[in-house]
Amino acid sequence: MKDEYKRIDFRDQISRNKNKSVFLMIIIFCVFVLFGYVISLAFEPGFFFLIMIISIIFSVSYIWISFYNSHKIAIASVGAKKASRTQHKQFYSLVEGLTIASGMPMPELYIMPSEQINAFASGRDPKNAVICVTDGALEKLDKRELEAVLAHELGHVANYDIRYMTLTAVMVGMIAIVSQIFLRSLWFRGGNDKDKGIFIVIGIIMAILAPIVVSLVQMAISRKREFVADASAVKFTRYPLALINALKKIQADNFPPEKLVSKVVAPLFFANPFKKLGSTHPPIAKRIEALERM
Amino acid sequence: MWEWILIGVLALVGFIFFIYYNRFVILGNRIDNSLSQIDVQLKRRADLIPNLIETVKAFAKHEKAAIKAVTDARKALVGAKGIEKKVKADNQLESALKSIFAIAENYPDLKANTNFIELQRELSSTEDRVAYARQFYNDSILAYNNLCKALPGAFFAKLYGKTEKEYLKITEAERKVVKVKF
Asked: Is position B162 within any domain?
């Protein structure tokens, strides 16, 4: 009995993936701090403080608003509608079963119009979470497969991926804004002090590179998180085969790339909605391989 | 200076004791809560049975043995005391239901009855929920036992007099595959 579980326990998988994402979070943080440091070296203190005060006020309200409205924005941006309890009985009953298995509160359920087999979760914590599936997923998946996909999304909720991805998106946006301010302010400066010239060059390079680095890191995190969410789904349902079958169906399904989906929401989808730009999700074959070892 | 360091260290130690006490309370409560969740789902299941029996009787009157088996199993489930006995009674009910659904294959009118189909779906989804509730109960116990056994939780467990809890066991007889007779 014991030997059966010796290979890779899903609990190990979850904790290992969590450690890796902490490591990546530290990298993002370092990039951000380094960026601020270079900016402060490149400008005179007086000028810098003025920028800082404005940008702090701006960024705090920016984070505040996006933190509390992220799921509404996500739902609205894909044109999803609230699922009705009478029409989509199976959808509700599967999620209710999964909340019992995971001991989590019931999320709000939405349905988005799309032929793709896909789903996503959003919100800031399990108490304020939404799960949204496509029409295609409800039609083409059988009960167990749909349950596995929903368990995967509930896994994103349970692991606080939904909050984490929201905050990462907010941070990417913030760095982009800061670097824009930095680049534009250079136009209004006289090139008198030669000592600081080198820092300005570094600053420009960083302003260009930072957003790229951050979004690369964001993609890497989100790829790892797909594996964690798959592991969580198995933890809830104890039935990896259904998830494997759902992934195989998506692989076989020929759908047009989703136009409605914004890049910010993409990491939280069950499978990459753009298909060809396989950056936010690991290849489906890799996910199946990891599931087969559980 | 020294006093402040001492106060700081004491506050930290107190805080750690506080945190561990709360962890035991929270995980203990989760176990109780998941136990009552099993109960809720089992009750829901028992409540669905009378409706099912009515529907079956309307189409397949003379399948008395199968109907009686289900009613008896339901009675046993409602009357059972303690979660282990209830789960055992539920397993009995599950096998009785299987033979009812097998019998339904011989009655096209019953099989096509929307009420019957709906009840069948409800019953199977509550069965999933019972399984999930049991799974979560055992998961909660695992979390609690890990806290009791691993360091430094083991130290605090001794201090607070907390001991490992028992998993919900399925007895050998129940593990056998239920045979469906046609």
From this structure: yes
pLDDT attached to residue A82: 93
- Specify the pairing of strand A108-112 against strand A129-134: parallel
Contact: B136, A93; criterion CB under 8 Å: no
Most confident of A71-80, A191-200, A249-258, B131-140: B131-140
Q: What's the predicted TM-score (pTM) here? A: 0.75
| Containing structural domain, residue B21 | 2-175
Q: Are A183 and A207 in contact (CB under 8 A)?
A: yes
Please check whether residue B181 lies inside any domain of the structure.
no
Gap between the Cα atoms of A147 and A246, Å rounded: 10
The answer to whether B30 faces chain A, any CB pair under 8 Å, is yes
ipTM above 0.90, yes or no: no
Interface test with A, best of B44, B136, B142, B172 (most A CBs within 10 A): B136
- The alpha carbon dihedral of A35, A36, A42, A43 has a sign of positive
> What's residue A246's pLDDT?
92
Which helix (H) or strand (E) element contains residue B144? Answer: helix B114-149
Task: In whole angstroms, give the CA distance from residue B54 to residue B33.
Answer: 33
Could you tell me if residue B87 is inside a domain?
Answer: yes
Note the residue count of chain B: 182
**A169 to each of A69, A129, A246, A289, how far by Cα in Å?**
13, 17, 28, 29
Q: Does A101 sit within 8 Å of B41, measured CB to CB?
A: no
Binned at pLDDT 50, 70 and 90, residue A107 comes out as very high
Record: contact A96-B129, CB cut-off 8 A: yes
The total number of structural domains that make up chain B: 1
Number of A to B CB contacts under 8 A, please give it.
Answer: 26
What residues contact residue B177 under an 8 Å CB cut-off, 6+ apart?
Answer: none
- B33's CB contacts (< 8 A; 6+ apart) are A103
Residues 6+ apart with CB under 8 A from B85: none
Identify the contact set of chain A against chain B, taking CB-CB distances under 8 A.
Answer: 93, 96-98, 100-103, 236, 238
Between chains, do A101 and B34 touch, taking CB under 8 Å as contact?
Answer: no
Average pLDDT by stretches of 10, chain B with 182 residues = 92 92 89 88 89 86 85 90 85 88 87 87 88 89 87 84 79 49 49
Domain harbouring B107, CATH code:
1.20.1440.20
Span A217-269, pLDDT tens digits: 667 667 777 888 888 899 899 889 999 999 999 888 876 666 556 555 566 67
Mean pLDDT of chain A: 75
